[in-house]
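Summary for the funding panel

The consortium committed to producing paired sequence-structure records for every protein in the target list. Below we show the first two records in order, beginning with the earlier of the two.
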Amino acid sequence: MKLAKAAAVASLAAVMAQAQVNVGEQKPEASLPFSMTTVATFNLPWRLAFLPDGRMLVTEKPGPVWLVTQKGEKIQVTNTPAVYFQGQSGMHGVFVSPKYATDHSIYLTYAEPGEYGGGLALARAKLNATATSAALENYEVLWHQMPKGKGGQEGAAVAFSPDGKYLFLAVGDRQRMTPAQDPDQPEGKVLRLTLDGKPAPGNPNFGKTGASTIPLIDPPRDTELAKTAKVVSSYTFPVANLTPAETWASGFRTPYGLAFSASGELWEVEHGPAGGDELNLVEKGKNYGWPLVSYGNNYNGTPIPKPDTRPDLAKPAIYWVPVIAPGNLMFYSGTKTFPQWNGSGFVSGLATKSLNRFTFDGHGGAKAAERWDVGHRIRDVEEGPDGSLWMVEDANPGALIHVTPK
């Protein structure tokens, strides 16, 4: 009887954790509990990452990567790759290796140029940084999206597993929609890779082989690109060693944020179409529904079936209608500067010019806390070594903003 009761309670808790909540209409707080100071400016900054010495790396979408002090002094990193800079494509993320203390490696995600547009790439290099210079050495591309092509929404977020053995790479649907449901294409997926960019053992389809050719591009149906795009999906492009073995989960649209919580859960935020931004708990082998279902509609006004119509697909814990256009997701672990926020998740809002805090129960549940109107299109927010927050603004010039308690 006790076992049956415990099972019932656990089942109820699981159902409650999966309840979907719309926080799109959430009103901002009346005041800010922090001060914001602009330290430096950049041309369309995308991501920042802190090094052990307290300096940070900042990427700009047109291509440069900068080594920046907390006073705003900048050194351009040399030997960075060429990028395909157009629309939503360009240089994206920078991530410090979990083994940085011994290998001094960083990872970059960016749109790699090709004959027909670009494709998401994941690369690793050793950072040689002194007080006056910074350069990448032993540069190696670990993973390519193939085929390359037009379309934004590359995703390009990376999260390292808590044990430091694996990396998770978010790949957007590139505005092509249908590949998100094709197991033989990487678009619209969260991949689980070794630190060398190989399929990780334990993935749902590890060891299986996919198709040898795939469509060059699917016609985009949900954006402005659809008005001028030519349908070329009848063509195919040969792809060597294409395999679904990399895939951890599927059915994502624009996964710009990916991070592990303190309890070891992997969470993701993504843009919906016209409505329907999502915060998802990412679990092995699950399908998150895009483009089959959404809480939003297509940009041309045609409806999309709602997630409740497909109980076989995973639903978001939280969604936004209207949207906030999330820029990133991070989890706060500080105990001194903002101790009241320890364990909280932060999502930046581009469209709402907001910083949004969430609490997590460690069992698949998330709850919205505050929304603060910060007056800037925040692309990224990260925690500094002292527990203060740092944000970059999606603009040119875009501010690097230091957030400290009032």
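The next record, for a separate protein in the list, is shown here:
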Amino acid sequence: MDETKGVYEEKLDSSKQTLQECQESKGLDSCLKCPEIIGCPIRTLYVRSVYESMSKGSTGGFDF
């Protein structure tokens, strides 16, 4: 496995776990149902991790 890919995938897995733990602690199955979604640092980190995982740290566009 490419080392760069591993770092981004690891960060994504970690932020996903944190997000899911937050949802579970609030009894939610989606962030969209949370009144704190706007400005939530946990969700912001998760979204950033998803983007970085897809772009592998490159700036600009990426392919889906």
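Regarding this second record: The mean pLDDT is 86. Residues 3-55 form one domain.
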